[in-house]
Amino acid sequence: MAFSSDCIFCKIAAGTIPARTEYADELCLAFHDVNPQAPTHLLVIPRQHLVSLAHCAPQDAALLGHLLQVAAELSKKLELSNGFRAVLNSGADGGQTVDHLHVHLLAGRTMHWPPG
Ligand code: DGP
Q1: How far apart are CA 82 and CA 26, in angstroms?
Q2: Residue 3 has what pLDDT?
Q3: Model pTM?
Q4: I need a labelling partner for 23 at 20 to 30 A (CA). Which of 40, 44, 47, 96 fits?
């Protein structure tokens, strides 16, 4: 499985950097964002090092679907019945700051549109 030794999320997936983990399986894990932008702010990441959505190939489709399915399951587990927002920032203009694919799961307040 691809691992990048200078990637903070690879280190979280490997357990060498601690995180408040909410869910983990063989393909992905979900943990609380260190700088939350909403009362609930989780990151769902693949264990495999993929840089961003723009770097995904057709063979990554099942993994991408799994990340979204896990986000949906977490919304039930955490009883986010009033709604939530799932976001993938990609690249500089997308606001991506950590170059390891991740889904933000944000909830607990009303989200605005258009996003900033
Ligand atoms: P983005 O800007 O879309 O690349 O989001 C990256 C998020 O990752 C940002 O909201 C802060 C979070 N983050 C960065 N470093 C760490 C860390 O070491 N631990 C945790 N839990 N979150 C982190």
Answers
A1: 29
A2: 85
A3: 0.98
A4: 96
User: Beta-carbon neighbour count of residue 7 at 10 Å?
Assistant: 17
112 lies in some domain:
no
33 alpha carbon – ligand 1 mean position (Å): 6
pLDDT for 2 equals 87
Q: What is the CATH number of the domain that holds 66?
A: 3.30.428.10
CB–CB of 99/54 below 8 Å?
A: no
Question: CB under 6 Å to ligand 1: residues?
Answer: 8, 17, 19, 31-35, 43, 89, 95-98
Q: How far is the CA of 61 from the centre of ligand 1 (A)?
A: 23
Rounded average pLDDT per 10-residue block, the chain, 116 residues: 91 97 98 98 98 98 98 98 98 98 98 94
Q: Taking the alpha carbons of 6, 96, 30, 66 in that order, is the dihedral positive or negative?
A: negative
